[in-house]
Amino acid sequence: MSKNLHMASELAKDNLYSDILPEDLEWTLAAGAATETQTFYLVTNEGHFSFVQMIHSNIGLWNPTIQFTARFFGAGINTFKSVNMSNFKLSPDRRSAQADNMSITLNPECNKYTVVLKHEQELIVSFEFERIDRGFKIGGGKTYFGQDKSTGFVEHKFWPKGNVKGNIVVDGKAFDITGVGLFVHAIQGMRPHLIASRWNFVSFHSDNASLSMCEFETTPHYGSIKVNQGGLILNNKLVGVSVKNEAHFMQTTLDKDTGYHIPNRIRYTWEGITLDTEETFTARIEIKPKALMDKIDVLNEVPYFLKKIVQAFVAKPYVYQWFNEATAHIKVGDNEEIVCKGEMFSEATFIS
């Protein structure tokens, strides 16, 4: 294991699970080259998909960059918006944020967000996201870089399932986005291309099960080590969190546009210990991702001066996003295997 890397799971030792406290939901606006995001991944009762994200980034040379990205996929519509914002403000408790086009407001009980976004008439979003059961982070939530942990860090905090009520208007057409979703508050406390060369992300929901996975592979300087964290919800209860997970690309095809080998068959696996009964649990999902929602050239979506900084470090980030029907196979202890059919958002990010 690299001495330059201190993974959240290693620092946690035997106590992988930590609850999400109110202070965990505060915007930190960390100094230095930090990027902080709050992202909501939504699956509607009609089988449509949407995500909404607010980004605060200090990577630039001058003022922080504030951005929202949003997507709606379904009913023959596939739209993605990425817009720079200004006038970013936090609430006195730092748990709610707003800018010109958008607000993310946390209630006093710290279990429900209200999200409002308006971009001219092209995109209007309004929904409530109420946490189901509890959130989690792995140990203290942070993986540190550098021998003395001072180079930087990555932090993730999850609400693995929530109930969603609201609407989205895309180019004048309204959709009910009532359903379920996943919320992630993430901080990258150093320049993204120094953290990882690859990322994989999964959000799966069925009637009785939800699975999430977030994996990154460190750059060669930090040992090309895969850091993975995930969670399993069964019948609206957080059953367990896990770090012995993997996103395995079983077959790939070269994308000549980008030079990256893109998966056309993926096996996702989870392995952990249940929180209440300390039984082993495993889960697997195997897909042939067909519905490619988007291939995002990240440098096309960031301001000019940021683009120049990233290009100077020879990074060419692309994000591939899919939304497919999928089947999860879940086993807890000696119980019979549970087979769950649902919808899954999956994402593969290539940075260098």
From TrEMBL:
Domain of life: Eukaryota
Keyword Cytoplasm recorded: yes
Compartment list: Cytoplasm
Pfam family, one: Svf1
Any Gene Ontology biological process: response to oxidative stress
Domain Svf1-like C-terminal: from-to ranges: 190-352
Transmembrane segment boundaries: none
Gene Ontology annotations for the cellular component aspect, listed alphabetically: cytoplasm
Location of the Svf1-like N-terminal domain: 35-188
Assigned keywords, A-Z: Cytoplasm
Primary localization: cytoplasm
Cited PANTHER family: CERAMIDE-BINDING PROTEIN SVF1-RELATED, SVF1-LIKE PROTEIN YDR222W-RELATED
Family under the similarity heading: Belongs to the SVF1 family.
Protein name per its UniProtKB record: Oxidative stress survival, Svf1-like protein
